[in-house]
Fold this sequence. Notes:
The chain is of the alpha+beta class and 164 residues long. It has 2 domains: 4-79, Ubiquitin-like (UB roll) (Roll); 88-159, Orthogonal Bundle (DNA polymerase, domain 1). The chain has helices at residues 25-32, 88-95, 105-118, 124-131, 142-162; strands at residues 4-10, 13-19, 51-54, 57-60, 73-75. β3 (51-54) and β4 form a beta hairpin. Bound molecules: FE2/S2 (inorganic) cluster (FES) (2 copies).
Amino acid sequence: MAMQEIEVTINGTRYQEMAEPRMLLSDFLREVCGLTGTHVGCEHGVCGACTIVLDDAAVRSCLIFAVQADGRNIRTVEGLAHTGQLTTLQKNFKENHGLQCGFCTSGILMAATDFIEKKPEADSQEIKEMLSGHLCRCTGYDGIVKAVEKTIEENKKSVKELNT
Ligand code: FES
Ligand code: FES
C-alpha cells in the first residue's frame, strides 16, 4: 500500500513521518514516533488505554487512522511531565494509589487532564461518569477517583489564592 506523509505536532514537537493509510494513530504514535506511553489494549475503543488528546478532545487513538491526524495537534502522556516534574494530577495518582500495574494509567491521565481543563468544578458523580469509559483491572477505581477529586480541589485552592 502506498505510504502517505503525515505531519503532526505531538507535545509541542513537530513530526513529519510516512505511514500506510490503514495505520492506526495508536500504532503510529508507538511504532513510528517511538512514544510508547500510549498503551494499546483492546484496539476496539472499549478499554480507554490508548486515550490521547487530539486538538481539544480526548479520543481513543485506536479508533483513528494516523492520516486523519495529519496537520493536527496531539498531546500524549509523555507531554505531561515534560519539565521533569509531575503534574498535580500525576502527583495525586501517585499519592492516592491511583495506579498499580499502570497499563490503564496513561489513557486515564489524558482523559482526566482534558476533563479537568474543561470542567474545573466537576463533582464526584461527573468524575465517575468520565472514568466509566476506562477499564482498570487493578485499583478498584477508588484511588483514581480520589486522585482526580484532589486535583480539582487543589486547583480550586490555587485559583482562590491567586485571586486574593
Ligand atoms: S486500545 Fe483503544 S480503547 Fe482499548
Ligand atoms: S492500574 Fe493496572 S489496569 Fe489500571
